[in-house]
Every structure is written in structure tokens, then in C-alpha cells.
Amino acid sequence: MAGIDIEGLATVYPNGVRAVDGLDLHVADGEFFALLGPSGCGKTTLLRTIAGLESASEGTVRIDSVDVTRTEPGKRGVAMVFQDYALFPHMNVAENITYPLKVRRVAAATRAETAERTAGELSLNGLLERRPGQLSGGQQQRVALARAIASQGKVLLLDEPLSNLDARLRLEARTFLKKLQRDLGITTVFVTHDQAEALALADRIAVMESGKLRQLGTPREVFARPVNTFVANFIGSTPMNLLPGVVSSSGVSAAGGTLPAAASIPSGAEVTVGIRPEYLTLSTGDAIGPGLRGTVVVAENLGVQSLVSVDCDGTLIGVTVPEEQEPSVGKPVFLTAPPDRVLLYDRESGELLARQPVA
Amino acid sequence: MTPAYVVRRIGFYVLICAITVFFAVPMLWIASAPFDKNPGLGVHWPDWTFENVRKTLDHPYALHSMVNSLIICITTALAVTAFAALASYALSRVRIPGRDALLYGLLLLSSVVTGTAAMVPIFVMIYQLGLIDSRFGVALVMTGGLLPAAIFILKDFVDAVPKSYEESARVFGASTLQILRDVVLPVARPGLATIMVWAFVNSWGNFLVPFLLIRSIDLQPGAVLMQTLTDEGGSVNLQVLPVFSLLFSIPVVVLYLLVNSRYGFRFHGGIKS
After folding, report:
1. Which ranges carry the ABC transporter domain (chain A) (predicted)?
2. C-beta atoms of B173 and A53 within 8 A
3. Model pTM score
4. What is the tens place of the pLDDT at every residue in A144-201?
5. Own/partner long-range contacts of A102-108 (Cβ < 8 Å, ≥24 apart)
């Protein structure tokens, strides 16, 4: 087991695109680490650079404190599962799982034993003779994982591990994957464009945009306290409300009302106010304290809760309410928020403004 | 059902029948003439006998030429498949400027290599190499002629092998040769089989190259020997020729059936990427 250290890493394609652009990252031993970002942000390139399938243009990659920047993929001690699983269609499950051992000329008896054991760990018993084409998507994924585990790499790399599964299977596979990673305790880096997947699986998340790291933190940190408007927008299944606002003495005025804010920012500063729909409270009674006044425009049922869009002085603001409290359309409502949930971002740079309690 | 429609249908089926008969007659001839007591050039119900078969087997060169044909064609088919596999893998994976132009250029020129236009230079070249009257020399020239088209076809099959297969093998530590042997070639196997059969069939029927390059009658392949199957008077030996034709057609038919049953002659890799 081993950690990964990345310093000043850049991967530049021949056409001049800097897919990974000067990145520093440390993945701890045994950590389940997510690389998250929209398509084209360089997360897959970063993963492939760690694997050695792309060569780094600048910087270093160290696995288990050994510099592997110029090492062949096969000699880095990494195991990788590809997005399409890359199972060899002409080999059966057992042959697929033990291919990494065959490459290293391990004896056939040992290989058969490994296939049996690994297949058992991933509940693939009884499928060893099948061809990949005869397996379901979930089984194929487990074979790919089994093969990666059988190769006994120090680090496991997963490229979009769940994207090829259908929606229901994806949830099952997600739980399975998390449990497997915990049981094995193997350092794992996975790439995903799905923020929910990253939040659900990872111990820590690196949010990337255009080859750069935008935020690094635990799922809780990244969700509750995005350090810039890009991350704020990207994380969360219901998008964060981002409103233009001006700091005033009583808080921050935006969308025709005032929200409390706990930032030590001089009055009159122009900011972007960020607040998650989940952190807003909707009330239909009298207005008490600072808040936003508006009328309900749309209510979308999300199952256990509803996403209500409220028109506040011409700005649409999303707020989630429990299912039984869904207001009717056209109803005047009042929105309030706890001060520590209201985030203020610099209007120009989009960076989070330091939140310090007002003295 | 207007009368015009009926007439059109009748005309259509008559035409189909005529075309069918046109292609069926040689087939019927090859099926009946070898076992006929008085074989002619027409088709008629045979007067059954195995005398022709016996005569053919006794012919001093007939069976020998079949062996020659097999030696030449198996060598050619194996060489074409081996070289085309290596070349198409390289061309499929390595990015070189002008790669497609190179492929099309080769394809165009290949029809010249074994074609009539290049007969003299090829003869001179093989003469200088000292390969006149050698089955190996014939196989060499035919391999050269078939390779470009083989590379062109096989490259499509190799292109269809997903890159992630190879990368996966690479991460597990496989060398380029191991990747080619364990992953790429097995996945592209329908393509390899197609190329091998195609090369075999093409060289089996090739008359010009062995006709030019082989002098001794005991080294001639079937395709060349067939034109010498005449009796002392110079007229066609109608006792040996039909049987010989039948024997000559067997390998091609067998190969076709074999590949068709295993791969169904699909001209694609059959892999979803």
C-alpha cells in the first residue's frame, strides 16, 4: 500500500493543449480519492499520467515515495480499470482475471488459485468459464476490478467506474465499490464527472477545471463550503443559488431583500451571494428578521422533497422543502437562511471571501 | 394484376433463369464430366465410370502439380498473413504523416506488381536473385503483390480493436510483442482468417506468375499445368481435364466453407468500442 505524490505536474498534448496544468496533489495511503470535474477538465489525463499511459511534460509523480515519472506503466505498481472495462473478449473470466499474472509468467497452478480466490472476493463464483460477452454490465465491472486486484498493484486507478452501468445498478455498484475499497484498504484514485458519485464514494475530492485544481477537500467541505463559484455551481444535485449582492451593515442585500452574512467585509462591496437550496427555509407566515420575499413560480417533485423556484424581485431562487410542505404556485413566501450558510464570493474573481465572525 | 405486370414478372423470371443456366452449366459440367465414359465439352447425364479418375491419378504430373500448388499457396498465405498482421498493427497504431496516402499508394501499385505491366522487370529481378524455377520465388512475388491489399483490409480489423485493451495490458506490464500476441491478434482473428483465405485463393488461381518463373514441368502448380493437359495429338485431354478441374476446385471450396462456418465472412471486427 502506498500514497501518491504529485508535484508541479503538467501534461501537454502535441497540439499545445495543457490538459493537466501544474498540479500538486497528495493522495494518502489507503485513501479513496476522487478526481471530479466537467468533461475536458483533464481529470482522465491526470489519471492516465499517473498510470503512465500519458507522459508528463513537467513535474513528478511519486508512488510509494518512488519517482515513477519516467517509468513504464507496467513497472509502476499500478492497476487500472478502464471506463469500458477493457476485458479481453477472447478470454474467459478466469483468463482475464489472471492475465496480469500470465504476463509475469506466474505458474498456471498459482494463477488458477488466484482466479478462484479473487472471483470469490468479488462474488463471481461460477462465472469463471464464461466469456465477457456472456456477462451483465455489473458482472463485467466486477471482473475488471478482480483483474486489477489480482495484479496486486500498490495503487488502484478507476476511470469512470460507474458510468457504463444503468441507473439502478449504479447505486448497487457504488455501495459495493466503497465496501470493497474499505476492505482491501488499497489506495484508490477514481475519475468521475458525477458530483453525487464523488460525494458518495470518496474520502477526499479534487475538483478540477481546465487542468487546474479548483478545490481539494472532504465531500463535506466541498459541498458546504465551495471555495469559488465554479465549485459552488458544480457540486450539489440542485444547483447553488448564486445572486449578485451588495454588502450592507445588516448583512448582504440581494434579490430585493437582505440575507444575514457573517463575513467581515466592508459595506458597499459588490459580491456574489451563494446559498444552497437545501439551506434555505421557506415560510408562508409573517416575515421575521432578514430574508427574501417572493412568490412561488414552479414546484418540482424530487421524491422526499420538492425543489421550489421562488421569484424574488425578478430573480429565480431555488429552495428545497419537505414533501408535505410544498406550497401552491403563486403563493407569496418568505425565505430565510442561517448566517453561516450564506457564502460570499468576490464578484470579479469568484473566490470565496474569508468568512470571519463580525467583531 | 394488370397484364403488363404479369408480362413483366414473366420476363423477369426468364431472365433470372437464363442467368442461372449460364452459371450452372460449368458447375454441372464439373460435377458430371469427371465420371462420364465419353466426356465432352457439353453437359449431359453421365455414363458412370471411374476410369477418368484412375487415369488422372496415373498422370505423371497431375497430382504433383497439386502438391506444388499447395506448397506455393500455403507459403504465400502464411507470409501474407504474418507480414500484413505486423504491418497493419504498426500502421494502425503509429501516427506518421502521410500514412493514408502511403496506404492508398501501395494499394494502387500492388495491382501493377503482379500485373502484366511488371512482367519483364519481375522476371529480371527474380532471375538476378537466382530464383527462377523455384516455388519459393513464385511465392515471394505473389506475397509482394497481395501484401498491400492485405494490409489495407487488415488495418480496418486492427483499427477496430479498442485501444483500451492494449492500454490495459500495458498497465499490467505486457510488452509490445505480448500485447500483439495475447490481445490484438486474437481479437482480430476473423480478419486474419479472412486474409489468409483470400491470399490462398488468389495465389491458387494465379497463372501468370508461375507461368513466367517456373520452367520445369515437375515444379509447375496446377493452374499452369492445366493448360498442358493435352494428349499426343495436341487436342484437350478430356479424360484427365475434368477430374483435374474438380480436384483443383476442392481446396478453395473447403476453405470457404471452413471460414464461413467459423466467422461467417463478416468484413468487420465485430467489437463494440
Report:
1. 4-235
2. no
3. 0.78
4. 999 998 888 899 999 988 888 888 888 888 898 999 999 889 999 999 999 989 999 9
5. A102/B182, A103/A74, A103/B169, A103/B172, A103/B173, A103/B174, A103/B178, A103/B182, A104/B173
pLDDT at B1: 74
> Can you give the pLDDT at residue A328?
86
Averaged pLDDT, A63-91: 90
Between chains, do A86 and B173 touch, taking CB under 8 Å as contact?
Answer: no
From the candidate CATH numbers 3.40.50.300, 1.10.1240.10, 3.50.50.60, 3.90.870.10, the one assigned to the domain spanning A4-234: 3.40.50.300
What domains are there in chain B, each with its CATH number?
A: 3-49 (no CATH), 61-263 (1.10.3720.10)
SS3 A245: strand
On whether any CB of chain A is under 8 Å from the CB of B182, the answer is yes
Distance from CA of B269 to the nearest CA of A (A): 12
Cβ-based contacts of A74 with chain B (< 8 Å) = 170-174
A294's torsion region: left (phi>0), alpha (psi -120 to 50) or beta?
A: beta
Residues of A in contact with B174 (CB under 8 A): 74, 103
Residues of chain A with Cβ-Cβ distance to B178 below 8 Å are 103
Low-confidence ranges of chain B (pLDDT < 70): 111-114, 231-232, 264-273
Cell 412561488 -> residue: A296
Q: Best of B171, B176, B183, B272 to disrupt the A interface by mutation (most A CBs within 10 Å)?
A: B171
**Cross-chain Cβ contact B172/A51 below 8 Å:** no
- Sheet of A187-192, strand order: A78-81, A155-159, A187-192, A32-36, A204-209, A212-217
